[in-house]
Amino acid sequence: SGGEPVGPLDAKAAAKLDRTSLRIECVFGDRDEGVYPSRGGAEARRSRFFGSSTSGESQTRGAPPGYWIADEPGFFKFSLPATSPISFSNITCVPIGTVYFNAEIETERKDAPSSETRLVSGVATIKRDVPASFMGADYSGILAEYVVVGTFSARRVN
User: How far is residue 107's CA from residue 64's CA, in Å, rounded to a whole number?
Assistant: First the structure.
């Protein structure tokens, strides 16, 4: 009891955990032409934890390391590669690999300009392989679970 969580967290359990903040400046590319649902490139700028797999420099000449997708009305999803583990108190909260972000789109608020779009109720998840075997054969890597590693909100800055 009182130890670190070992499985997926629901919202109630996550609210009881210690929290820390991390700021990420994301750049979302234009919509890829002729692709449905709408999607495009995404990358983090000047980030110690998210970036290209080769360096922290922008990948303006090549494909961006992440992507965004608008496949569900009212929600915005994007992914970024974690190129360094994110650890607090010697506990790795986010390992190296893809982090998936999913947020509700809020377009109208009483205290904001009508053109402002915000991402609210955002959840960050990672995909973790589930060990599996059948009749002695190893099927690890076929099954996976998405584990919540954080929550977020975002606002447009340009």
Answer: 27
